[in-house]
Amino acid sequence: MGITKEYSNNEITIVWKPEMCIHSTKCWKGLPSVFRPKEKPWMHPNEAPSQQIMDQISQCPSGALSYYLNNQKPDNHE
């Protein structure tokens, strides 16, 4: 199944599947306040409004990034 990492703020949880990532750079070029590839952890979901994060994640070409609303967590989000 591979590694899955999650990063949360109060509203959403970002789900990252590193094995799927094609390093298109769309995430961090589009929203560098949240996605900081040279830092650990590299995601900072408290640094932008949740809607802005969701909009940026929708541009991920590989599907390595996804999210769920914390009040609507799916049974299986993998």
Automatic annotation (TrEMBL):
<feature type="domain" description="Divergent 4Fe-4S mono-cluster">
    <location>
        <begin position="7"/>
        <end position="68"/>
    </location>
</feature>
<dbReference type="Pfam" id="PF06902">
    <property type="entry name" value="Fer4_19"/>
</dbReference>
<protein>
    <submittedName>
        <fullName>(4Fe-4S)-binding protein</fullName>
    </submittedName>
</protein>
<dbReference type="InterPro" id="IPR010693">
    <property type="entry name" value="Divergent_4Fe-4S_mono-cluster"/>
</dbReference>
